[in-house]
Design goal:
Helix content: 10-25%
Number of strands: 19
Shape: globular
CATH topology of the domain at 1-63 and 166-229: Alpha-Beta Plaits
Distance between the termini: 26 Å
CATH class of the domain at 1-63 and 166-229: Alpha Beta
Order of helices and strands: EEHHEEEHEHHEEEEEHEEEEEEEE
CATH architecture of the domain at 1-63 and 166-229: 2-Layer Sandwich
Strand content: 25-35%
Structural class: alpha+beta
Radius of gyration: 21 Å
Length: 322
């Protein structure tokens, strides 16, 4: 498994889910290797033999030495604990509900069944764990001098005839201080490793998002190969969570009593302004029974002529079923 780090040099898009990262890789591959190579890769994905899978991007924070990285993963979505389990900890339960990310240590302990929602809420009450910036839960003494905040950038439209300013609009991005983003890639066909890395370097030169002409979306890329940020359970377990957006092949095949998830709607326009078909996918952190197949999910066709797809393949992390 490889870890890809994005050190922001300017404001980045407010989110970088797996489908957006995959789309950027496709753009880079098309520019560098041509439409034939890209089509060949997409056919492999459509045929169920994906050469690689990737996660969405999540935050990391630099330590005081400006070298150590503290990684955050999405809070697992599991069966809600009963109200009586939180007796005496109601304030902590309210705060925990707003948490979006667990630090790497807490995340690994959670998926290994060493802690759960109830124990984390109790840990908040006893100050064994703490919440930073309202959405990050950590049990580590992390450097608090970091920021990930929204930035609205004003723009105006000039009338090309009169030269006067007519309308104002805003683009929104994220500004980072002592922090950045990372995502994971697992290669099943090492022949694609160099091509994906080259495509990411192309995006590094070009920038992420639709406002690169105004200086947004710039970052420094670094890749760590064979990284082991996730410590999955060694024993057989019955559940897994997805670290990417996930569009199941057949949701009816799941045991609904063992699925806990949040739905997200994906919609948007192509570069030529054409509106893509909207789809619904399961958000990062959603949990499901383990599937037998290696590749779970699919590419979803959202436009014809030219063909446009959305990436909906799960990046699973095995976890002890709560």
């Amino acid at each position: 498994m490889d870890t890809v780090y994005l050190d922001p040099l300017s404001a980045l898009p407010t989110d970088l889910p797996s489908n957006r990262i995959f789309g950027a890789i496709c753009v880079g591959m098309n520019e560098l290797y041509g439409d034939g190579e890209l089509s060949s890769m997409l056919e492999q994905f459509r045929g169920g033999s994906a050469p690689f899978i990737l996660s969405s991007a999540f935050p990391f924070v630099y330590g005081e030495d400006n070298k150590t990285k503290y990684h955050f993963f999405p809070k697992p979505i599991v069966k809600p604990s009963a109200l009586e389990d939180h007796e005496g900890h109601y304030d902590a339960a309210k705060k925990y509900k707003k948490v979006q990310y667990l630090d790497q240590v807490l995340f690994n302990r959670f998926i290994n069944g060493e802690i759960n929602e109830t124990s984390l809420i109790e840990g908040l009450s006893s100050n064994d764990v703490k919440i930073i910036r309202k959405i990050f839960l950590t049990g580590t003494d992390i450097n608090n001098d970091f920021a990930i905040r929204k930035q609205d950038t004003p723009h105006n439209i000039l009338n090309r005839l009169s030269g006067s300013s007519e309308n104002f609009y805003y683009t929104t991005g994220l500004n980072f201080k002592n922090s950045g983003l990372f995502f994971l890639i697992k290669f099943y066909d090492n022949a694609y490793r160099s091509k994906v890395e080259a495509s990411l370097k192309f995006i590094e030169d070009r920038g992420f998002g639709g406002n690169i002409s105004s200086g947004m979306g710039q970052f420094k890329l670094s890749i760590v190969t064979d990284s082991e940020l996730i410590n999955e359970p060694a024993r057989d377990v019955g559940s897994s969570m997805t670290l990417s957006l996930y569009s199941p092949d057949d949701f009816n095949s799941f045991d609904k009593k063992r699925c806990w998830y949040e739905l997200m709607k994906i919609r948007g326009r192509c570069g030529d302004g054409f509106m893509k078909k909207s789809i619904r996918v399961f958000k990062e952190g959603s949990t499901f029974p383990i599937r037998d197949q290696k590749i779970c999910g699919k590419l979803v066709d959202v436009r014809e002529n030219p063909d446009v797809v959305e990436y909906g393949i799960a990046f699973p992390a095995r976890m002890v079923e709560p």
